[in-house]
Write a structure and sequence with these properties.
The chain is mainly α and 194 residues long. The protein contains 9 helices and 2 strands, in the order ααααβαααααβ. A two-stranded antiparallel ribbon has the order 1-2. Helix 1 crosses helix 2, helix 2 packs across helix 3 and helix 7 crosses helix 9.
């Protein structure tokens, strides 16, 4: 998914084909990340938010420094993070932390139940899973939610996430662990322990 530096150089020089290539390759990841991070309440604004992010990226494209060794997509996801945080600040939405720790300090293995073995009332409950996952994601602290979305949905490596979030890889691991624990707790009625 990363954009070659040569394409970025051409875009900085004003090549419209290069600009179009950047947008075409990154539109889906930018839109998906903003949607997953901000949630359904921003469905009507999702496309506008993605366009605002691309405007910011192209206005400052000349500042991208390939000599730093940062991937272009990592640089773009920094704009996604900052803009999403700004959108939430403007809307004054609060988030709640659901951090929890296992008393024994052990991680549990979780998986969805086999739907074929469920009774009708259980199937009705599982149809809510997508909505419950979105609500659980929305309940995470902003930094944990962004780390989770970048890792689990966009498949960014820890180093890239650390660059996007402007923190250490250790902090990324910690936030990711806390996010997963909070999600497990929130989604426990829909999961079973192995």
């Amino acid at each position: 998914m990363d954009i070659p530096y040569e394409v970025v150089d051409r875009a900085v020089a004003g090549d419209q084909d290069a600009c179009r290539e950047i947008v075409e390759k990154l539109h889906r990841p930018v839109l998906a990340t903003t949607h997953r991070f901000l949630g359904r309440r921003f469905n009507d604004e999702a496309e506008d938010i993605a366009q605002e992010i691309f405007l910011k990226v192209f206005r400052t494209l000349h500042r991208f420094d390939k000599q730093r060794g940062v991937k272009f997509t990592t640089w773009v996801f920094t704009f996604v993070r900052n803009h999403c945080f700004d959108v939430l600040k403007k809307k004054r939405l609060t988030t709640t932390s659901l951090q929890s720790e296992d008393a024994e300090g052990e991680e549990k293995s979780w998986e969805l139940e086999d739907g074929s073995a469920r009774r009708p009332e259980e199937l009705a409950e599982s149809s809510e899973l997508g909505e419950q996952i979105e609500l659980a994601l929305a309940s995470l602290v902003e930094e944990q939610r962004m780390v989770f979305v970048l890792r689990e949905y966009e498949q960014l490596d820890l180093k890239s996430i650390a660059e996007v979030m402007d923190c250490s890889e250790g902090t990324v691991k910690s936030r990711l662990h806390r996010a997963k624990e909070a999600l497990k707790q929130r989604l426990e009625p829909y999961l079973r322990t192995q």
